[in-house]
Amino acid sequence: MVRRAVLGAGLALPLAACAPREPERPAAVRAEVTVLVGAIAAEQDLVALYEAARKAGALPAARLDPILAHHRAHLAALQKLYVPGSGSRAGEGGVVPSPSPKTVPSGRSRVLAELRAAETRAARDRLAAVARADPGLAQVLASIGACEAGHAAVLGSPA
Predict the structure, then answer these.
(1) CA distance 109 to 119
(2) 73-99: string of b/e by CB count within 10 Å (b at 16+)?
(3) Which CATH number belongs to the domain containing residue 104 in this structure?
(4) Per residue in 33-86, pLDDT tens?
């Protein structure tokens, strides 16, 4: 009887380690979510900046609207890749912050300079993010970064 109790206890101990537990997310997956959340937040901020510039009226809407439409499309594409709390992304964290309210300086040249600087920073940041992303996300980020570099160039040209 004692022998059975000892054997039973000996078998129960390893089985206790088989209890289901939350799978550990690989560091690469967590980094991917961080990159994606950062890109979404940056696009939200660019949309908010362009909306503030449009509202200020220093530049014609016809000049801002196409770029604003691009940023809204970028944001939509990135948001399709991030679905918090579902599938393999459950529990990964990385809450997307709300965009902060934006203001623009007065005057056409100062607004243009601010938008150009924001586009240049965004293009640089997307390029840096490419190195931390998997190939699929890297392609999306590279395309968005190229578009943002193009926006900076367009904003630097006379209209």
Answers:
(1) 15
(2) ebbeebeeebeeeeeebeebebebeeb
(3) 1.20.1260.10
(4) 889 989 999 999 999 999 999 999 989 999 999 999 999 999 999 998 876 654
Domain assignment of residue 1, yes or no: no
Confidence at residue 25, expressed as pLDDT on a 0 to 100 scale: 47
- Rounded to two decimals, the pTM is 0.74
- The count of structural domains within the chain is 1
Asked whether residue 114 is assigned to any structural domain, the reply reads yes
| Lookup: tokens for 149 | 């570099």
Q: Please, which contacts does 125-133 make with residues 24 or more away whose CB atoms are closer than 8 Å? A: 125/38, 125/42, 126/39, 126/42, 129/35, 129/38, 129/39, 132/31, 132/32, 132/34, 132/35, 133/32, 133/35, 133/36
Shortest CA distance to 46 belongs to which of 155, 139, 138?
155
Q: Which residues contact 138 (CB under 8 A, 6 or more apart)?
A: 130, 131
Q: Which amino acid makes up residue 107?
A: G
